[in-house]
Amino acid sequence: MAMPFFTPGDDPGSNFPELLRRTGLTSDVVNVGDLLVPHATTCVAMRYIDGVVMAGDRRATSGNLISHRGMEKVVQADHFSGVAIAGAAGPAMEMIKLFQLQLEHYEKVEGSFLSLEGKANQLSMMVRGNLPAAMQGMVVVPIFAGFDLRRRTGRLFTYDVTGGRYEEQDYVATGSGSLHAGTVIKIGYRESMSNDEAVALACKGLWEAADADSATGGPDALRGIYPIVATITAEGWQRISDEHLATVFEEIATEVRAR
Known about the structure:
By secondary structure, this protein is α+β, with helices and mostly antiparallel strands. It has helices spanning 16-23, 89-110, 116-129, 131-134, 178-188, 195-212, 242-258, and strands at 39-40, 43-48, 51-56, 60-62, 65-68, 74-78, 81-88, 140-148, 153-159, 165-168, 171-174, 228-233, 236-239.
């Protein structure tokens, strides 16, 4: 494929979706019918004193079957933001890859980061573009979070299937286990939490979701599979190591056994 060229008045600039539309690279909608599409499940995010923490379990299900045990649902978007996805796994992962590429494209063209508000709006457009597929059952519902360099604080955004974008003040949960995870976080949430306290609360929410929801996977010490947990602060994206998470979940297990 040759490099596309545009006249000065017709140049899409840093608008990546418009570039895809102009070059005819947008994907067609597929009728999935009764096909069992792998679905991602429970993800949570919350604000704390230094920024935001995001967490997601690793299980993907196709109907009543476990299709993947090690799926990564919490993904770095750029240095200061991340996306967590629930819904149809295929379209969700494609959406995240395009979103990452769009942010990189904007940075290279403009020479600066897109604002956090702008990133949230661009993701909203992508969710809205998936609406025809969502009407056929391939729903994608992400959580977007990041550290706002202008406001010097962490921010959370959630979406509905039509692309509606809503900013959350404290915490948000999505996916099949969101009721259980969100209830745990609601009870234990404090805005003044430290990094370790926020990570522990997010893990506890996922633990309780896995305990009550069959589509949500808990920590799997036998296979060495733990949820994806990451913090986003003024220093940027930082993924929590599996070694640290193993310690956190062992403390949760000890607490549960004591109950």
